[in-house]
Write a structure and sequence with these properties.
There is one protein chain. It is built from 4 helices and 3 strands; from the N terminus they run βαααββα. It has a 3-stranded antiparallel sheet, with no helix packed on it. The chain is extended, with a radius of gyration of 17 Å.
Amino acid sequence: MIIMIIIHTLFNINSAQLFQTTMFTNLSQIYPQLSNMDSVPVEMKAGSASFHSAGLVHGAAANMTKYPRRAMTYQMMPVGCKFNGKKNILTDEEVKKLKIGDLFDDNNKNPLLYSKESV
């Protein structure tokens, strides 16, 4: 895996556009300042996991094995987050059901992982 540490506010990065960009070359075209930054190779053994912030630009070289590369993504946010009107990673169906200001409180879709009150 290759990583670049990016602070969204430092570079004024549009996170919706970032999620839609899949290649480092495209990303550096959108944000030319990234081409001057060093990336850091991080070797990971098969079956390893990486936990990082959405502000971390990351990627991997092509899978040259005959086996599929599997991935799982967890996206977390603080309690009390509200819909701001931007699609971001939501599906079209989800966006149609939301109004700006709606609380993301559907425990089936956004389960609560931790609460100070439950400790």
